[in-house]
Amino acid sequence: MFAIFVLFVISLADLTLQAEWTYNQEYQWPGVCNVGKQQSPINIMTNEAVVDTHQVHIRGPLVFRGYNDVPLYAVNNGHTLKWSGVADGPAPILQGGPLRGNYTFLQFHFHWLSEHAIDGMKYPLEVHMVHIKTGLTLDEALLRSDGLAVVGVMFMVRNGYDSGRALEEIIPMVPYLGDSSQNKTEVQRIDVSRLLSHQPQSYYTYHGSLTTPMCQEVVTWIVMDKPVYITPEQYKMFTKVDVGGDFNYRSLQHPNGRVVYRSIASCASILLPTVPGTLLSLLSCLSTTLAAGVNKGIGIVLNVKRKIFGDTAKKCIKLN
Ligand SMILES: [Zn+2]
To answer: How many angstroms is it from 318 CA to the middle of ligand 1?
Structure first.
């Protein structure tokens, strides 16, 4: 039982002044793009991110409902490739984590290179899954600081086991989207959950803006910290698409003192490479318990982490 797409919120096309702005002239972007103090994307510094162990900001796990089978059509809007929901189709719902209430999925689109950076590192590709606060019209959402929620997922390129599965369903549509003069594709049912990180509870979150004009500061950003792997051939197909220039990412914006929160799961998984398997599952199990709202064990878990992992764990918990 999912919400229904409403025609006027199908896409964010109306948000942007199509073809009237370019990525190599950002200084001319209208709206609050050049004067806002909560702009996106940003460079996320992991050591400065706050772990919300008392669950004031991140109150529980993110919940994704209905992402497995979504009817979508694709379009090249001159700035990106975008897959949008159809009117009256079933719309996935996102809730939990830093979000208050439900958010209805609208569309996903890509940036190459990535827009966000993590510890100064950019990725070849980033997908943005755009959601609107359920029940609001687009006009209403653009006037509220909590109007939109965007999930960002990073992609890395490599040949190997499981590489390419995430984009398997949508890549065949890309050749039909060479430039913006082409029409939208036929509607296809797509498993949007494939685009999510394998550890969707491991993420950073902060308040920011749309990364295209008018750059409204109405977005709860959820940036997953575990990348998804795609093949070199898949990546090459994106780079051949005409989006008005060689790239389609906005430059990094000043954080202006904003707090970036990180989920407890991201704090646990940062230690992955050095931790024996059993201990690891114990910790992730405990973290899940914490995320579910049990405050009692926090001190114990943190002490365990502190003892075992030393400095890394300290950095992860220093701002409790
Ligand atoms: Zn985007």
So the answer is: 32
